[in-house]
Write a structure and sequence with these properties.
heterodimer; A: 515 residues; alpha+beta; Dipeptide-binding Protein, domain 1; Dipeptide-binding Protein, domain 3; seven-stranded mixed β-sheet; 15 helices; disordered N terminus; B: 319 residues; mainly alpha; MetI-like fold; two-stranded antiparallel sheet; 14 helices; 77% helix; globular
C-alpha cells in the first residue's frame, strides 16, 4: 500500500519538477550494508530522539501516558527497575528481602547514590516517595497498584520497611515507582529531580524536552551521551523527512512501509513491543453478545496475513491477552482458532448463531493510529469472506477515549493495550465488574479463577491460574486478539548500544557514538 | 465616524457569538480534557483530583461565565493541559504569546513572497501575447493551486531540504535563540504557503486585467496615443487592483490566522499547531482564545480592506 503512495508521490513530483526530483532520487539513496555492532563506544555527543506525543506531566507519579513514561525512564528510578530482559534489577535500593509471609519488604538504600541536585538519597526520601504515590500521604493514590501499601517505616538511616496488606508477587513490579526528594512533590512538575542517568534541563511544550548527562550516576560508565533531546514530531511523514534531513537521530515508531524507505541509510531494528492488538468486541452489544458470533469472527481472521500486511511479519500472533515475552505466564493458544482463516467454520458458527447471511458491523478506530487503521482495512476484507459487512469509523483519540473506552458505546474497535511487566495487568480488566473492562466481558468462570489469584500466595499456582484465565478469554472469545505489535526503530548509523525493553521505555543511557 | 462605530459594535457581537458557538461545540463533541490528559491507565481518584484541580467539577454555565468575566477583565485564563510550574497552569496569554510571533513572521514572509511575485506575474501574463507563455502559466498555476498544502509542504522539504540541502528539515530555531536563523528556517514553510496563493493571485489579477482591457476607456487611452505600458500600469492595473485587494485581504486573513497544515508538516510551534493539539486534548480555554483571535483577524482585515476601498475608490465613500 505504501509503495502505491510512494509511486503516487513520485509521479506527482515528476509532473511538477521532473528534473529536480529525478536527480534527487539517484542522489538521495546511499545504499550501504548493515553495520556491525562491534564498534568502540565513545563518550560524549548529543542525540535527538523523535517522539510522537507531547508529555502529560513531568511529575513521575502523575504521568500516565506511555509516551511520557518512556522519556521519564531516563530521569527517574525506583527502588528497583526493569532491565532489557524483563527482570528487575536493584536501583535506588542495593538490596532487599521479603518476609516469609510476603507482607514485609525490607530495602537497603544504595551507598552513595545521589539525586540530580547533588543531595544524597535518604530513607526519608524513599518514605516520602512511596507514601505520596500510594496515597498514604494525603489519601489520593497516584498509582493504583500501590493502594495495598499499609505502611512505610524507617528502620535506620539505610533501611526502609514496606508493609503491604496483601501478599502479592506483583507488588515488587510497582515498587519501580520513582524516588524523588522528600517534600519535592509540588516541584516535580516543573523541576523534576530523580536519580536516573540523565538530568532534566528544559521542557518546551509542543517542541522538546532536553536532558543532560548525570555525571554522578551510580552505574559506572553510564551514560555515554552528554545530551539527549526528545523532540515532539506529530506526523510520521514529517518524522521520516527529519530523519533523512538529519535533525533527528533516533525514531522508534517506524511503520513497516517507512522501514523500506529508510533501510540502508539508517540502522533499522525491530522487536516485539508491549502492545497487544485486538479487534475488541463489545460483549454487551448485539450481535457480539453471542459467544458463537465472537468465535466466528476469530475464525474469520487470517492473522498471518494481517501480520504480513501491517507488521511486515514482525508481529507475534496471539490469541489471548498476554504478551509472549512474559514467558512465565504466557500460554500459546494459537491452535484454538488457527493463524489463518477458517471460513467454513466461521460460516457454520454464524448459521448456528442465527446469522446465516452475516450481518453489518462498525469498527471504531482511533484514526491517528495509522497502524490500527491499516489493520482495520485488512480485517474488513477478511470479514467480507464470511459474509460480515464491516464498516470502519475512524474517530479522533479524545472521542475514542470517552465514547469507546470510558463510555463503552461502540460495537467493535481495533486498538492496542499496552502492558507492564505484571501479568495481571492485561488480565484484570476482563473481570466482569472491572472499571477498565471496556469490552464488557462477562464470564463467571473467569471471575472465579481471577479471585483465586488474589488469595493465593503460591507462585506456581498463580502461574497456572493466569494460564487458565488466558484460555477462558480465548475459548469464550472475549475478543479477537491479533498480535503483539512490533516496534521498529531507526537509528543513526553512528550510534549503537540501543536496547529494546519488554516495557515501553527509551533507555538512552546505553546508547553511544561509535568511533 | 458613525460608520466606524457601527463596525465596532458588529465586531463585538460577532466575537461574542463565536465564543458562545465554540463553547457549545465543546459541550457537544465527545471527549473530555481529563481522560485525554490521563489516558487509559489513570486511577479514578486521580481523575477526580485532576477534575477538581482544573475546576471541572463546577457546572458548565458557571465555568463559562467565570471564564468570560475573566476575559472581559483582560485575564485570558489558564490552559488545562500545560502547566507552568508548581501546580500552576500556564496562562493562555503566555502560551499563545510565545507561539504568535512564529505564525506572524511566517505570514509576513509568505505575504511578501505572494505580493512581490504574483503582481508582476499577473501583469506579465495579461500583458503578454505569447500563446506559449499563456499556456505555460495556465498549467503551472492550475497545478500549484491543485496540490494539497500538506503534499506541497512535504515536496518543499524534500526538494529544498533533502535534495538541495538548503536547510535541515525539522531544525527549527526559536526566535529567542537566533532571530536570523529563525527567519532563515521560516522561508521554506513560507514558500509552501505562498506557492498556491501566488498562483491564485496571479490568475485573479490576470483575469481582472483582461476584463478591464475590454473597457471603453482603454480604447480611448490608446486612441489618445498612450503607449501600451502607460495603458497597462497607468489605467488598467489601477482598476484591476480593486478586486485583487479583496482577494489579497482574504489571503492575509488566512495566513495570519495560522497555517495549520504547513505548521504541522514543518514542525513549527505556531498557533495553527497549538490549535490542533488543543482541540484534540480538549483544552477549552486555549481553543476559545485562538478561535476568537482568528475571528478577530478575519473581521479586522476585512475592515481594513473596506477602508482601503474608500481611499482608493472615491465612488464608494459616497454610498
Amino acid at each position: 500500500m505504501k509503495n502505491k503512495k510512494r509511486m503516487l508521490s513520485l509521479a506527482l513530483g515528476f509532473t511538477m519538477l521532473a528534473t529536480a526530483v529525478l536527480s534527487g532520487c539517484s542522489g538521495g539513496t546511499n545504499q550501504s550494508s548493515e553495520d556491525n555492532s562491534s564498534k568502540e563506544p565513545t563518550y560524549g555527543g548529543s542525540v535527538v530522539v523523535g517522539v510522537q506525543q507531547d508529555i502529560d506531566s513531568l511529575d513521575p507519579h502523575k504521568a500516565t501516558a506511555a509516551g511520557t513514561k518512556e522519556i521519564l525512564f531516563n530521569i527517574f528510578e525506583g527502588l528497583v527497575k526493569p532491565d532489557e530482559n524483563g527482570n528487575l534489577i536493584n536501583a535506588v535500593a542495593s538490596d532487599y528481602t521479603l518476609s516469609d509471609d510476603g507482607l514485609v519488604y525490607t530495602f537497603t538504600i544504595r551507598d552513595g547514590i545521589k539525586f540530580h541536585n547533588g543531595n544524597a538519597v535518604t530513607v526519608n526520601d524513599v518514605k516520602y516517595s512511596l507514601e505520596r504515590a500510594s496515597g498514604l500521604l494525603d489519601g489520593t493514590a497516584l498509582i493504583g497498584a500501590l493502594k495495598t501499601l499499609k505502611s512505610v517505616e524507617i528502620v535506620d538511616d539505610k533501611t526502609v520497611k514496606v508493609t503491604t496488606s496483601k501478599a502479592s508477587a506483583e507488588l515488587i513490579y510497582s515498587l519501580t515507582v520513582a524516588i524523588i526528594p522528600d517534600g519535592s512533590g509540588e516541584q516535580e512538575a516543573s523541576q523534576p529531580i530523580g536519580t536516573g542517568p540523565f538530568k532534566f534541563v528544559s521542557y518546551t511544550p509542543q517542541q522538546n524536552i532536553v536532558l543532560e548527562k548525570n555525571a554522578d550516576y551510580w552505574q559506572n560508565g553510564l551514560p555515554y551521551l552528554d545530551e539527549v533531546t526528545f523532540k515532539i514530531v506529530t506526523s510520521s511523514d514529517t518524522a521520516l523527512l527529519e530523519l533523512q534531513g538529519g535533525s533527528i537521530d533516533v525514531y522508534p515508531y517506524l511503520t513497516d512501509s517507512q522501514k523500506a524507505e529508510i533501510q540502508g541509510t539508517f540502522n533499522v531494528k525491530s522487536a516485539t513491543s508491549d502492545v497487544v492488538q485486538a479487534l475488541f468486541l463489545n460483549n454487551a452489544e448485539a450481535p457480539f453478545d453471542n459467544e458463537k458470533v465472537r468465535q466466528a469472527v476469530n475464525y474469520a481472521l487470517d492473522k498471518d496475513s494481517i501480520n504480513g500486511f501491517v507488521s511486515g511479519g514482525n508481529g507475534e500472533i496471539i490469541s489471548s491477552a498476554m504478551l509472549p515475552t512474559l514467558k512465565n505466564y504466557y500460554v500459546d493458544l494459537n491452535s484454538t482458532y488457527g493463524n489463518t482463516a477458517n471460513v467454513e467454520k466461521a460460516k457454520q458458527l454464524l448459521s448456528e448463531a442465527g446469522y446465516p447471511n452475516g450481518f453489518d458491523m462498525t469498527i471504531t478506530v482511533p484514526s491517528s493510529y495509522e497502524f490500527h487503521m491499516e489493520t482495520a482495512e485488512v480485517v474488513v476484507e477478511q470479514l467480507k469472506a464470511v459474509g460480515i459487512n464491516a464498516k470502519i469509523d475512524g474517530i479522533e483519540w479524545s472521542s475514542w477515549l470517552s465514547d469507546v473506552y470510558s463510555g463503552r458505546k461502540y460495537q467493535s474497535t481495533i486498538c492496542g493495550l499496552t502492558c507492564d511487566m505484571t501479568p495481571s495487568y492485561l488480565l484484570n480488566r476482563f473481570v466482569s465488574n472491572a472499571s477498565k473492562n471496556f469490552i464488557n466481558f462477562n464470564s463467571a468462570k473467569f471471575d472465579e479463577i481471577y479471585a483465586k489469584t488474589l488469595t493465593t500466595t503460591n507462585q506456581t499456582d498463580i502461574d497456572g491460574y493466569y494460564k487458565e484465565l488466558q484460555k477462558i478469554l480465548c475459548d469464550e472469545a472475549g475478543s479477537a486478539f491479533i498480535q503483539a505489535c512490533p516496534l521498529t526503530i531507526a537509528i543513526n548509523k553512528k550510534l549503537d548500544g540501543y536496547k529494546f525493553y519488554p516495557v515501553y521505555v527509551q533507555d538512552m543511557s546505553t546508547v553511544y557514538f561509535t568511533k | 465616524m458613525k460608520y466606524f462605530g457601527k463596525k465596532l459594535v458588529s465586531l463585538i457581537i460577532t466575537l461574542f457569538m463565536v465564543s458562545v458557538a465554540t463553547f457549545i461545540a465543546f459541550q457537544i463533541i465527545p471527549g473530555d480534557v481529563v481522560t485525554s490528559i490521563l489516558g487509559t491507565e489513570a486511577t479514578e481518584e486521580r481523575e477526580a483530583q485532576l477534575r477538581e484541580e482544573l475546576g471541572l467539577d463546577k457546572p458548565v454555565v458557571e465555568r463559562y461565565v467565570n471564564w468570560m468575566g475573566g476575559v472581559l477583565k483582560g485575564d485570558l485564563g489558564t490552559s488545562y493541559r500545560y502547566s507552568k510550574s508548581m501546580n500552576e497552569m500556564m496562562p493562555v496569554a503566555e502560551l499563545i504569546g510565545d507561539k504568535l510571533p512564529v505564525t506572524l513572521w511566517l505570514a509576513a514572509i509568505a505575504l511578501v513572497l505572494i505580493i512581490v511575485i504574483s503582481i508582476p506575474l499577473g501583469v506579465l501574463w495579461a500583458h503578454s501575447s505569447s500563446k506559449f507563455l499563456d499556456a505555460f502559466l495556465g498549467v503551472m498555476t492550475q497545478g500549484a493551486m491543485a496540490v494539497p498544502s500538506f503534499f506541497l509542504g512535504v515536496l518543499v522539504i524534500y526538494i529544498f531540504g533533502i535534495v538541495m540541502k538548503m536547510f535541515t528539515p525539522g531544525s527549527y530555531i526559536s526566535y529567542h535563540t537566533s532571530f536570523a536563523g529563525f527567519l532563515g528556517y521560516l522561508i521554506f514553510p513560507a514558500i509552501a504557503i505562498a506557492i498556491p496563493k501566488i498562483a491564485m493571485t496571479a490568475r485573479f489579477l490576470r483575469n481582472a486585467m483582461l476584463g478591464e482591457l475590454k473597457q471603453d476607456y482603454v480604447r480611448t487611452a490608446y486612441s489618445k496615443g498612450c503607449s501600451k505600458n502607460r495603458v497597462m500600469y497607468g489605467h488598467v492595473l489601477k482598476n484591476a487592483m480593486m478586486p485583487v485587494i479583496t482577494f489579497v485581504g482574504m489571503i492575509i486573513a488566512e495566513v495570519v490566522a495560522g497555517s495549520i497544515v504547513v505548521e504541522q508538516v514543518f514542525s513549527l510551534p505556531g498557533i495553527g499547531r497549538l490549535l490542533i493539539s488543543s482541540i484534540s486534548t480538549r483544552d477549552f480555554p486555549v481553543v476559545e482564545i485562538l478561535v476568537l483571535y482568528i475571528a478577530f483577524v478575519v473581521i479586522f482585515v476585512y475592515f481594513i480592506v473596506d477602508m482601503l476601498y474608500r481611499v482608493l475608490d472615491p465612488r464608494i465613500s459616497g454610498r
